[in-house]
Amino acid sequence: MIAVIDYGMGNIHSVRKALESKGGRVRVTNSPSDIERADKLVLPGVGAFGDAMKELHRRRLDDAIRQHVARGRIFLGICLGMHLLFESSRESASATGLGILKGAVNAFRAERGLKVPHMGWNQIHFRRQECALFRNIASGSSVYFCHSYFPVPADAGCIAAQTDYGRLFASVIWQGNVYAMQFHPEKSQAVGLAIMDNFVRL
């Protein structure tokens, strides 16, 4: 079973539909016990880092997520769900992230004609072609982004793909059983659905 976490800040309906269209058996939940039983876990997210961590903690989902990952079960973070994996974010200086991955989340600067947020289609360029999410997908494929912040992992070796927006930033993370992406696969048409298919098949 794939558990999609509903903590009041995610694009839940579209994520669920995308996974189900590829044969995933999905349960949308905010229950720690459901997460404990799940084979795979998806943490979507739209909104602010600090508010999201408050909601995860209030609902006792933060520890459930950490335990899921510690057991070696598969995890996917999407957009804000990717940021929450890290220790901290410039967006919410007083908030502490899940700390599953070492590193921090930084902000784009509106300079040299760069518009913030980074919104629309952009390319992902693979650094680790062997990542299972990339099966039958070409490096340089375009996907849909909407974000003002981006993670900077302490270990650059976990960066599976990068995207250029005034600077190179990590657009896909892969470390063991942990996968995360800055873009929205549920809004990325054929490429996004192919990524969701690969995730369901993991």
Radius of gyration: 15 Å
Q: List low-pLDDT spans.
A: none
CATH-defined architecture: 3-Layer(aba) Sandwich
- Beta-strand level of the residues, as a percent range? 25-35%
* Tally of contiguous helical segments: 6
Instruction: Give the CATH H-level superfamily.
Output: Class I glutamine amidotransferase (GATase) domain
Q: What's the arrangement of strands in the largest beta sheet?
A: 2-1-3-4-13-12-11-8
Largest sheet: 8 strands, mixed
**Extended strand count:** 13
Number of domains: 1
CATH topology: Rossmann fold
Euclidean distance between termini CA atoms: 12 Å
What share of residues is helical?
25-40%
What average pLDDT do the residues reach?
96
CATH class, named: Alpha Beta
What would you call the shape?
globular
Order of helices and strands: EHEHEHHEHEEEEEEEEEH
Give the structural class.
alpha/beta
Q: In short, what is this structure?
A:
The protein is α/β, with parallel strands linked by helices and 202 residues long. It is built from six helices and 13 strands.
Could you outline the blueprint of secondary structure elements for this entry?
Elements: E1 2-5, H1 12-21, E2 26-29, H2 32-37, E3 40-43, H3 49-58, H4 61-70, E4 74-78, H5 80-83, E5 88-89, E6 103-107, E7 118-123, E8 125-126, E9 142-147, E10 149-153, E11 159-164, E12 168-175, E13 178-181, H6 189-201
Parallel strand pairs: 1-2, 1-3, 3-4, 4-13, 5-6
Antiparallel strand pairs: 6-10, 7-9, 8-11, 11-12, 12-13
